[in-house]
Amino acid sequence: MRFLPLVTAFSIVAAASAFAASPVQTVEAGKGKVIAAENGMTLYTFKKDKMGLSTCYDDCAKKWPPYLGTASAKAEGDYTLVDRKDGKKQWALKGMPLYFWVKDTKKGDATGDGVGKVWDAARP
């Protein structure tokens, strides 16, 4: 009987960990509200990508790092995961892969919006 509190505590922790935090948040940027990762950094979509398929690798991915999901990440609403050719999972908004921009340095930066007319800040 003395193990009951420990079992109950374990059950509460296990249940809480089953609910993953949202992979994104909305933040205010100089250009209005944008979608950002948990760290507050703006996320972007790439017009050359296709639904469910990332085309940004090598030099592109050095400038535009993909927003990768953890091994336990689960799709949630409009946020899904796409398979990258390196076997990693990348977060996507409505099927479009999401990326960071290396020139953004703080929460609310959206300096990648419109770069090359192919990069757009993700918006709520």
Task: Describe the structure concisely for a colleague.
By secondary structure, this protein is α+β, with helices and mostly antiparallel strands. The protein contains two helices and seven strands.
Structure, described:
This protein is of the alpha+beta class and 124 residues long. The protein has one domain. The protein has helices at residues 4-18, 59-63, and strands spanning 24-29, 32-37, 44-46, 79-83, 89-93, 96-97, 119-121. It starts with a helix and ends with a strand. The relative contact order is 0.23. Mean pLDDT is 86; it is low at 3-19.
Provide the helix percentage: 10-25%
Class by alpha and beta content: alpha+beta
Measured between the Cα atoms of the first and last residue, the distance is 50 Å
Supply the number of structural domains: 1
Poorly predicted regions are 3-19
Largest sheet: 3 strands, antiparallel
Q: What best-fitting shape do the alpha-carbon axes yield? A: globular
H/E series = HEEEHEEEE
What is the beta-strand fraction?
Answer: 15-25%
Extended strand count = 7
In DSSP terms (H or I, runs of 4 or more residues), the helix count works out at 2
Mean pLDDT value: 86
Radius of gyration: 17 Å
Q: What is the strand arrangement across the widest sheet?
A: 4-5-6
Signal peptide: 1-20
InterPro entries: Lipoprotein_repeat (IPR005297), UCP029720 (IPR014558)
Keywords: Lipoprotein, Signal
Protein name: Lipoprotein
